Amino acid sequence: MTLWVFLLAESLFNLGLFIFFLLFNLHLLDRGFDEAFVGLLTGLATAGSICGTLPAGWFTARFGVGPALRVTFAGGAAVCALQAWAGGRGTLLLLAALGGFAASFRAVTIAPAVAHLTTEANRPRAFSLFFGLAIAMGILGGLVGGRLPEWVGGMRAKQVSLWMGCGISALALAPAMFLRFGRAQRPETERVVYPRTPFVRRYLGAAAAWNLFVGAFPPFFNTYMLRRHGAAASQIGVAFSFSQLAQVAAMGAAPALFARTGLARGIPATQAAAALLVALLAPSRGLASAALVNSLYMAAQWMSEPGWHSLLMNRVAPAERGGASALNFLVIFSAQAAAAAGFGAAVSRWGYPVALVSTALVGLLAAGLFRALLPDTLRGSPPASRGGTDPA
Q1: Residue 46 has pLDDT above 80, yes or no
Q2: Looking at domain 2-176+197-373, does it have CATH number 1.20.1250.20?
């Protein structure tokens, strides 16, 4: 039952965030900012997350998953509300970094929370359920967020809609107050254990390469649809929702794919597919075709997510999960910060086609690197964690 309370809290938080992020870049364009500034904001937010990952790992190990979740729900909603209010470049840049710092707590605590509430046998299914519900909230958020400014009306419709999204995210605190994860597991040294096994090092190397691809285009989906195809906010919302629906279908198909191919071949296959699909966005001319290709691209990109997180949590001891998650997101955020800033600068200088084709090449290289670093270690059952598994 606790797992479902956790999923309810996360769903409320995700719904509000999807509404916020669908509209925030459009709000910035209305205020006269360009893609280069949007890319800088995204990069700074990710840089803030980089700075927050290790403190988040320490906080999770010291005080537990529950307090860390409540910190990110409250802090994330508050910072987003301030971002919707701010108008100056300096204030927006500062808030972007602060928002990233708050978001790092949520990112780091997700995997340990799911791991604590599951066993090794049902963990992949639980991660699939978590990501599936998150995507479902994206569908709802896209549909609602795209129409919300029209429903609100007035010159400040987008700003008010952004605040409404923040309010929905803040509601996550209510169910989060009922979550109980037990006492925090702390080593006798009173410091976080960060695993440094050969597998973890290879895993982090593969994750770094992949997230240079993952972090590039998604933050610019709404500006791409507006600049390249002249889409209205409502059309962007519908297109975003269709991409989320495609991801739900991909999550459902992922277990069958990996059962047939194995993770060692299945994950790089989905990586290569995502890379080829993002390249097809470069010559796309019509709004409908761009929305379709983007939906297929996002489906391929997200198909391997449950396998990635389950793999890491299965191969580290329970006491190391917070530290392993912190290291994982330190790498993810670092790579995505560089990717977002680079993509935004590339769009401003050379346009979307060049930026998209370059991103596709990075994705293909990441698929090859995954095969090189993790060729056979993903087949079969992973070795048991030194600390055993948590009860359901």
Answers
A1: no
A2: yes
